[in-house]
Amino acid sequence: MVNVQIFGMKNSQATRAAERFFKERRIAVHLVDLKQKPMAPGEIGRFVQRFGLTKLLDTEGKAYIDAGLKYLKLSDTELLARIERDPKLLRLPLVRAGKQLSAGHDENSWKAMLGAPAG
After folding, report:
1. pTM for this prediction
2. 4-113: which CATH architecture?
3. DSSP state string for 37-103
4. In what order do the strands lie in the sheet with 100-103?
5. What is the CB neighbour count within 10 angstroms for residue 55?
6. How confident is the model over 46-88, as pLDDT tens digits?
7. What is the sign of the dihedral through the CA atoms of 109, 112, 113 and 114?
């Protein structure tokens, strides 16, 4: 049985889509609401290692634009600190199933996590 962990926010459309995707396939989901509980630095690190920090940022999102990050040059350490304080900067949801990870609304990755052919 696949154990799926979704890092997102309950009011995020993409997070709800991921939750619905797995529940429709009768997969137990553990939702971590980032508004209630921030991601552990090690958990963020896992996603950063896999995708790179720039791929995890929602550069089109309101939080990113409002924070002025388009115009600021921040080190990775400073960016990580910002992400820990404001998870809306991330491309949500972040989904983990075992060693498989996905960032953002990515149904092909979710299908791959379940062993289904992507398509």
Report:
1. 0.89
2. 3-Layer(aba) Sandwich (3.40)
3. SPPPHHHHHHHHHHH-HHHHB-TTSHHHHHTTTTT----HHHHHHHHHH-GGGB-SPEEEETTEEEE
4. 29-33, 4-8, 94-97, 100-103
5. 13
6. 999 999 998 999 999 999 999 999 898 899 889 988 988 888 9
7. positive
